[in-house]
Design brief:
This protein is an all-beta fold and about 190 residues long. Helices cover about 0% and strands about 50% of the residues. The relative contact order is 0.37.
Length: about 190
């Protein structure tokens, strides 16, 4: 029988550059799958749509690849990239020109990041995200489906997920952003 339990919740009371979750193989675990639910915004004012950067095991070299498809207002698009992190979801920002006037947004972007089998030393770490953000006054709501991979073969480190670091594409997490990690345990 599988049980999904809340592992840890972080709710930011001040702006923060990143949020880290770790120790997935202790406690009731080990966890067979991880789900990170987020409600988040960035304090950047450099655009109304930003993604979440996800790093695994503190590794920032080019061991990541992602593919993102999205719908925004009446248009759709897709892109792929290698990076020093993978990307997930979309979050709200404090962009002045699109209705928030540099203040706290009325809605935060929300979504779920799924990391299957994070403790395996035999497979590449993959991530799947469904997320989006409501539209500000300018009417640019956005939703996305993202697939990312972390491949550290040859990097001299373990393959299993020791920690996950979430940071906004630009800026810092805005106060009030909330992240909850759920783990699936097979009894």
């Amino acid at each position: 029988m599988a049980v999904i339990e809340a592992y840890k919740t972080t709710r930011l009371e001040v702006d923060a550059a990143s949020v880290t979750f770790n120790n997935f193989d202790v406690g009731v675990g080990p966890y067979n799958h991880l789900y990170i639910h987020y409600s988040a915004a960035s304090n950047t004012t450099s655009g109304d749509t930003k993604s979440i950067n996800v790093q695994v095991n503190d590794i920032t070299s080019s061991h990541y690849q992602f593919f993102q498809i999205y719908g925004r207002a009446t248009s759709v698009g897709a892109f792929t990239s290698g990076n020093t992190s993978t990307r997930s979801g979309f979050i709200t920002t404090r962009q002045k020109s699109v209705g928030y006037m540099g203040g706290t947004p009325a809605q935060y972007g929300a979504g779920v990041i799924f990391i299957p089998n994070p403790l395996s030393n035999n497979i590449h770490t993959t991530m799947q995200t469904v997320g989006g953000k409501a539209s500000p006054e300018s009417g640019r709501g956005q939703s996305s489906l993202t697939a990312g991979i972390f491949n550290n073969v040859g990097s001299g480190t373990i393959k299993k997920v020791v920690n996950v670091i979430l940071s906004p594409e630009t800026g810092s997490w805005l106060r009030g952003s909330t992240f909850t990690v759920y783990g699936m345990v097979t009894a």
